[in-house]
Amino acid sequence: MNSNSKGNFIFSGMEIASALTTSNTRDMETNRFDISLRTHQTRRKAFWVFVIFGFSFLPYGVCSAMTPGKEMQDHKTHVLDENSNGKEIAVAPGDLIEIQLQAKGATGYQWQLDKNDPAHATLVSEGIKAVSSGKLGSPVTNCWKFRIMKEGRSEIAFLYFRSWEGRSMAVEEYVVKLDIR
C-alpha cells in the first residue's frame, strides 16, 4: 500500500485480491453458520408442528389396518370403546382386544396407557386415525391392540391428560377389567 501526493492510498492488485478473499471466506463461513442455524430451527419447529397437529393428517383407517397374522386368525377380536369403560370383559388366551378411544384434536390432551400387566395382555400395536379427514384439530381415535396371553384377572387403564401437565391432572380415566378363561 502506497500513498500519493494528495494523501490518497493506492493498493496493489494482490492486496485487493487478498482482502476480498479474506472477507469472502469470513462471509461464507458466517453464511454457512446462519444457514445451518436456520435449518436447525426450522426442523425443530416442523417437528413440534407435526407432534401437535400432525396426527390429524394421518391416513384414515389406521386401526383397521392393524390385523393379526394368519396363525392368530382363529381367535376372537373384541372391539371396545368409551361404552366399555368400567366394565368387565370375558376373554380367552390368544384373543385380541382393540380399544378405540376418541380424543379432541389439537387440544393437547392425549390418551396414555396407565396400567397393564403384560403377562396377561401384551400391547401388539397402537395408532391414531382421523375421524374426519382434512380438518386440522378435528377429533381423532386412538387405537391399541392387546394380545391376551394367559388366564387370570387383570385390567387395562388409560388416562386422558396433557403431557406437560402430567398424569395427576388427568381429566378422564378409562378402565376395562379382564376375566381371562
- Beta-strand content estimate: 35-45%
Q: What structural class do you assign from the helix and strand content?
A: alpha+beta
- What's the total count of β strands? 10
Radius of gyration: 30 Å
Shape: elongated
Largest sheet: 4 strands, mixed
Spans of at least 5 consecutive residues whose pLDDT stays below 50 are: 53-62
Topology:
Blueprint: E1 2-3, E2 9-10, H1 13-53, H2 62-65, E3 77-80, E4 88-91, E5 96-103, E6 109-115, E7 121-130, E8 140-148, E9 152-162, E10 172-180
Parallel strand pairs: 3-5, 4-10
Antiparallel strand pairs: 1-2, 5-8, 6-9, 7-8, 9-10
Structure description:
It is a single chain. With 181 residues, this protein is of the alpha+beta class. Helices cover 25% and strands 36% of the residues. It has helices at residues 13-53, 62-65; strands at 2-3, 9-10, 77-80, 88-91, 96-103, 109-115, 121-130, 140-148, 152-162, 172-180. The strands form 3 sheets. Strands 3-5-8-7 form a 4-stranded mixed sheet, with no helix packed on it. A 4-stranded mixed sheet has the order 4-10-9-6, with no helix packed on it. The chain is elongated, with a radius of gyration of 30 Å. The model is unreliable at 53-62 (pLDDT under 50).
Quick take:
Helices cover 25% and strands 36% of the residues.
